[in-house]
């Protein structure tokens, strides 16, 4: 049985970890921390977990956390920098759901996150936890940087085209919509029902923090620089990411795009390449660790449009983190992640 610790269990990714791990046959949550809620019963904060957990939140303690087989960080950016290093030094393993170790350049990270990087010495060791790209590295890792939600949806939609060298890497557009849970559980005016319901708006058009993460992954796939325009939108739903990615076929590119994607993801348990002409909906992945993709070529022209949907809290966060844990511990990758999406 894998002994699990969770740092920062009071946000949406924390409770999603608890929900999914409650059904995991090979994992047991031993420690969950929160400085603000120390002493409170987990099931009192999250009644959906009544009968599944008899745990209380505690203050973070590096020794107790390092005694776990793996520690998930479901914390704001910057928190994992110091404590993750302590846990690793004591022999533990870490899966970080924040952005603290996703971007390999500490100066670039500091530019986008507005503070100096607190553990640049760990960046060379950190493995980017996108299993569809880094599966073998994940199996050997001590420190995993779980990808962001937008980056997961966009990269899975675009990587096959760039790997095959079929599209121009200079002009990629990612038009993405997110549910309000992507903004986190903290109180903010923009997340109020009266502000977000029956309305949709773009934000961070000048530059979103996920831009350098997406660009980093796409440049690895293309083996060249990538020109990316990424525009996120807040949409009036609780869960879900819908990414529409636009690319342009090169003049000499001749390929069956449907077959290309089907072959690229044929052995991926959590990527579903849908039949030609499909339009995947976010509700088809609600609550599950799945990315559904469809590929279009409007009017059979040079423009390629890829539609990609995920649940931002599952494949975009906690479910993918557990997928990484399964790989780290040599378990079947889908262990504890075979839920069926909620509909309606």
Keywords:
344 residues, 2 domains, alpha/beta, seven-stranded mixed sheet, 30% helix, single chain, 11 helices, Rossmann fold, globular, six-stranded parallel sheet, arginine biosynthesis, 13 strands, Dihydrodipicolinate Reductase, domain 2
Summarize the structure.
This protein has 344 residues and is an alpha/beta fold. Helix content is 30%, strand content 19%.
Describe the fold and architecture.
There is one protein chain. The two termini are 35 Å apart. The strands form two sheets. A seven-stranded mixed sheet has the order 8-9-7-10-13-12-11. Strands 2-1-3-4-6-5 form a six-stranded parallel sheet, with helices on both faces. The model has no long low-confidence stretch (mean pLDDT 95). It is globular and about 60 Å long. Helix 1 crosses helix 11. The chain is 30% helix and 19% strand. The longest helix has 15 residues. It contains eleven helices and 13 strands. By secondary structure, it is α/β, with parallel strands linked by helices. It has two domains: 124 residues, Rossmann fold, CATH 3.40.50.720; 164 residues, 2-Layer Sandwich (Dihydrodipicolinate Reductase, domain 2). It catalyses: N-acetyl-L-glutamate 5-semialdehyde + phosphate + NADP(+) = N-acetyl-L-glutamyl 5-phosphate + NADPH + H(+). Keywords: Amino-acid biosynthesis, Arginine biosynthesis, Cytoplasm, NADP, Oxidoreductase. Catalyzes the NADPH-dependent reduction of N-acetyl-5-glutamyl phosphate to yield N-acetyl-L-glutamate 5-semialdehyde. This is N-acetyl-gamma-glutamyl-phosphate reductase. Belongs to the NAGSA dehydrogenase family. Type 1 subfamily.
């Amino acid at each position: 049985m894998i002994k699990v610790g969770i740092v920062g269990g009071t946000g949406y990714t924390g409770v999603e970890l608890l929900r999914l791990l409650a059904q995991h046959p090979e994992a047991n949550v031993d420690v969950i921390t929160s400085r603000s809620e120390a002493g409170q019963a987990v099931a009192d904060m999250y009644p959906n977990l009544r009968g599944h957990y008899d745990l209380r939140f505690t203050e973070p303690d590096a020794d107790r956390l390092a005694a776990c087989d793996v520690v998930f960080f479901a914390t704001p950016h910057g928190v994992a920098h110091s404590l993750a290093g302590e846990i690793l030094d004591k022999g533990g393993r870490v899966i970080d759901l924040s952005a603290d170790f996703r971007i390999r350049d500490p100066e670039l990270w500091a530019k986008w996150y507005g503070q100096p990087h607190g553990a640049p010495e760990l960046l060379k060791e950190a493995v980017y936890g996108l299993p569809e790209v880094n599966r073998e590295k994940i199996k050997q890792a001590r420190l995993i940087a779980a990808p962001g939600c937008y980056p997961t949806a966009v990269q899975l939609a675009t990587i096959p085209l760039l790997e095959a060298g079929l599209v121009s890497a200079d002009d990629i557009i990612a038009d993405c919509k997110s549910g309000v849970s992507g903004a986190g559980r903290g109180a903010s005016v923009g997340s109020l029902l009266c502000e977000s319901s029956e309305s949709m708006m773009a934000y961070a058009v000048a530059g979103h923090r996920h831009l350098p993460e997406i660009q980093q992954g796409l440049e690895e796939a293309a083996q060249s620089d990538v020109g990316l325009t990424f525009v996120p939108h807040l949409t009036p739903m609780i869960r879900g990411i819908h990414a529409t990615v636009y690319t342009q076929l090169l003049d000499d590119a001749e390929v069956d795009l449907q077959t290309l994607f089907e072959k690229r993801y044929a052995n991926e348990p959590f990527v579903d390449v849908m039949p030609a002409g499909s339009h995947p909906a976010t509700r088809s992945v609600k609550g599950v660790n799945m990315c559904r993709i469809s590929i279009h070529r409007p009017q059979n022209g040079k423009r390629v449009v890829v539609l990609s949907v995920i649940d931002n809290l599952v494949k975009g966060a906690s479910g993918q983190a557990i997928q990484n844990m399964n790989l780290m511990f040599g378990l079947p990758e889908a262990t504890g992640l075979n839920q069926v999406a909620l509909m309606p």
